[in-house]
Amino acid sequence: MNFRSRPAYPLNVTMKEALTHIGKGIPALLKLLFRLVKDRRTPVHIKIWLSGTLLYLISPLNLRFRKFQKFPFRLVNYLDDIVLILIVLQKTLDSCPPELLDEHWDYKLSIIEWKDLVYKVRVDIQDFRH
């Protein structure tokens, strides 16, 4: 597979189509991450990042802080989890060998095309904010 170093933006898809493909690709992404952890060829630092993130998300300390049910605390509890997940996903997809990603990816769009859609949504949201 031909991997690009830069996303192919702009894409000729609407935001609705991009979000639909991203949403339908999430189960494939979860399978990909699980398969990467199980694969012996996956670099150790990626396995550590993925395992550490999973442990953080299910740890009792994380749940303990959820007892603050007032608006700002509840929002912060979810935002830190989302930010951590996004950072680890970006690190994993950028530093994992491309042939492993391609081998374990199980969706009709290639992993690169799926990442391009995520990039498109991010750029469109940033453009909308400004």
Keywords:
mainly alpha, flat, 6 helices, 130 residues
How do you describe this structure in short?
The chain has one domain.
Describe the secondary structure blueprint for this structure.
Elements: H1 15-38, H2 44-58, H3 60-64, H4 71-95, H5 98-104, H6 111-129
Describe, in plain words, how this protein is organized in 3D.
This protein is mostly helical. 73% of the residues lie in helices and 0% in strands. The protein is built from six helices and no strands. Helix 1 packs across helix 6 (111-129) and helix 2 (44-58) runs antiparallel to helix 4. The longest helix is centred in the middle third of the chain and has 25 residues, at 71-95. It is flat. It starts with 14 loop residues before the first helix and ends with a helix. The mean pLDDT is 81.
Number of strands: 0
What can be said about the biggest beta sheet?
none
Domains, number: 1
Calculate Rg over CA atoms: 16 Å
**Separation of the first and last Cα atoms:** 36 Å
Give start-end ranges of low-pLDDT stretches.
Answer: none
Mean pLDDT: 81
Shape: flat
Portion of residues within helices: over 70%
Structural class: mainly alpha
SSE arrangement, N to C: HHHHHH
Kindly estimate the percentage of residues that lie in beta strands according to DSSP.
under 5%
How many individual helices? 6
